[in-house]
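Design review, sub-item: ligand-bound model
Attendees: FS, YL, KQ
YL presented the inputs for the 1,3-dihydroxyacetonephosphate complex:
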Amino acid sequence: MNPAKLVVGNWKMNGSAALLRAFAAAARDWPACETVVCVPHPLLPLAHAALAATPLRCGAQDCSGEDGGAYTGEVSARMIGELGGRYVIVGHAERRGGHAETDGQIVAKAQRALAAGVTPIVCIGEKAEERDGEQTALVLRRQLLQLVRVLGRDIASIVVSYEPVWAIGSGDAATPGLIDHALGVVAGILAFHAGPCARSVRLLYGGSVDPRNAGAILSRDAVAGVLVGAAAVVPEDFREICKAAARCSVMPTRDAA
Ligand code: 13P
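KQ shared the predicted structure:
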């Protein structure tokens, strides 16, 4: 069980050593939620060192589907783990779209991550035209099916982030009602194909999450956390989102009544 909400920052191709120092300073008194910052690969060792004494953890934004060898420019999940990365985002829309990554390649990346002891955050989500054509459930099913088949029981150790492509970077997040519905579809697909172990999969939402909408999104029971882009490189905004997550987290010591 993970009662604390998970807030993951995806820095994309942004950030610097100076920004990491700002986060390390802000993290001295951090809200009580699980927090991860996924930085560009070259910043990973710095992030690990800067955040080691804080509650924040670090991760990466992609890994190879191979373990090693002649793959110029690639970074393995094992390297990410050795450099202190605990999480790695795989299958982000900007990689599926901009780099033509297939579901098969994304599953291979998730497998490599799990084998390296790094938690994969697998991104799924429909494009605007797929939403408009009422294809959302079909798209989510297609994006999840190979993952479930190949990972088997290991699916329990992954995080899935529903990131509708139309919401990313648009300033217009999906409504909490729509997020509930989509995560319900995801949970249903996982339960049907993976059985009870699917219950441990944490389901996040990503796409234009900011300090104004974070509370409404994170307060939904279906939402185990958020994956944040633009607001994740603004320490005050990221902190506000984490505060909202802390308010929505059921801490183990709290009386259920
Ligand atoms: P924005 O929060 O900038 O919309 O980005 C979302 C995202 O892509 C997180 O992975």
